[in-house]
Amino acid sequence: MLLKCLSTVSFVAAASALASTVVPPGAQGKWFDRSAALNTTGSNTDADAIFATAQTIDQKSTATGPPNQPVNDTSVTAVDGELLSPVSSTTIRRAFVPGALDRRSPEKYTLVFNGTGTGPDDRDASIRGTGYLTFTTVDNSTYNIDACLAFCDSISACVFVNLFYEHNNPDLDASNSNLKCAAFSDTHMAAEKTDSGGKQLATKPTGLTYIQQSCGYSSAILVEPETPEGYELVFGPIDGANNAPGYMGFAFLDQYDAGACAQQCSSRGADSQGGACQYFNIWRAVVDGVPTTYTCSMYFIPANASSAVNTGQGDLQVTFSRGYKRTNLVIDGGFEDFTECADFCYDTSDATWTGTSVDDGIDDATIFFYPPFAHSGNAVALLGSANGFDALAGTLTPATPLATRAGQKYSIGFFQASAFSPPEQEQPAFVDVQWNGATVQTIRPGFSNWEFFQVQVTAVGNDVLSFHGGAAPAWTFLDDITVFLA
Ligand SMILES: *[C@@H]1O[C@H](CO)[C@@H](O)[C@H](O)[C@H]1NC(C)=O
Ligand SMILES: *[C@@H]1O[C@H](CO)[C@@H](O)[C@H](O)[C@H]1NC(C)=O
Ligand SMILES: *[C@@H]1O[C@H](CO)[C@@H](O)[C@H](O)[C@H]1NC(C)=O
Ligand SMILES: *[C@@H]1O[C@H](CO)[C@@H](O)[C@H](O)[C@H]1NC(C)=O
Ligand SMILES: *[C@@H]1O[C@H](CO)[C@@H](O)[C@H](O)[C@H]1NC(C)=O
């Protein structure tokens, strides 16, 4: 009762100190500046841009140059409709490391197409296709299929090999074999045998290069991806791409590489309305039956199979579509599990969040159910005495420590709004972002509508995140809090 009495006194004192009369959030007041809440209208996937770019991109390769070159890192061939020169990006981590030579397993491969023979007049062509990895030469004393399949087995991403003779190529003489074995991460068909040589590589009078007996073996249509660290598989593979809100753009990759797509998502700049990338959709574009590119679309709202409905357009088909969601270590970062009422209410804690006040502070960190206050959804957190009873800062923290891994870097993301009181009263607004009790960054937004902030931290394991701030009437609203593996 003493507490209540004190609080009433301080409320009166605080209120009389203010020139204007702000109805506090706890009394269901209104924003001074109407809340710029998340509006996802018009933010759906721009499938037309993706399809149009897929029709112009050429990321098909053949086995050229010297044999046994290391497999390149996955490279980005286009970003948001702009074609990039197909140079392997150093920012993409090596995804396909040639593994140790596995036990030979020819039984897991099936013949996709035969060669056309080795007679003096027989001519064939090698595959020019997507997902090219590297090539070797195999002992040509026989048509050495087993050695070629073993080569594929030695490369983790390999699912398909094209075995053929290439004549009049002096580059191959060093290896004493003209029998080339080219490895791919995607399966190709006889219709893609389009490189028939025709190059003058040897000195005349030796003739142009030509191809004979070009066959293809496959162990799977496409490589089975590993789930990238920091992400979880949501659906797939299916033949539909997401048409979903919160779309941030796309990249084309030269391999079906979920890890490279995850890296695009993790490193993509935040959207000012929606924040960091939280989800990606990777799929293979097949044009006229031929694998053409690997699309990586990014979103700030996690999607799922229910919106993976776009199967293609014209001669372009969507295949092998998978969705991956970035794992948020913060449970209920949007406070949407706070459902104590269906209209307007607030509390100092719920099952996943705890708000604390110091000394005789009253309601200095609270959770509100009230859609007009939220950045998205129905609920939001508030720092600063909910009813303006005091000008003390409160602390908001998850009820349980985060399931972090020691030594890993994480990115804390959140939305902040300090636009409830008039500008002069919101001027002192602040938020301390705390990691294991230590302030890692103090944000002084002044009078500010919803804005996204990101702070990098290093984990020690079971880390404690907290937000400390608010000094009524310089209230701070917080919403859509995330902690992602950086
Ligand atoms: C959301 O944005 C659309 C288009 O930008 C606009 O027409 C609509 O009124 C906005 N909705 C709200 C609730 O502000
Ligand atoms: C390859 O050739 C063999 C022998 O002529 C034949 O039996 C087989 O059906 C052919 N396979 C394909 C996929 O063309
Ligand atoms: C890897 O990329 C480099 C530079 O583009 C290229 O010269 C090399 O041939 C590529 N390696 C393979 C195996 O294709
Ligand atoms: C094997 O390859 C070498 C080098 O190109 C060539 O000289 C030789 O004639 C080939 N042997 C057979 C049996 O094709
Ligand atoms: C899938 O996404 C839709 C749209 O956001 C949502 O309504 C639905 O609950 C989601 N389904 C699952 C299983 O998460």
From TrEMBL:
<feature type="signal peptide">
    <location>
        <begin position="1"/>
        <end position="19"/>
    </location>
</feature>
<protein>
    <recommendedName>
        <fullName>Apple domain-containing protein</fullName>
    </recommendedName>
</protein>
<keyword id="KW-0732">Signal</keyword>
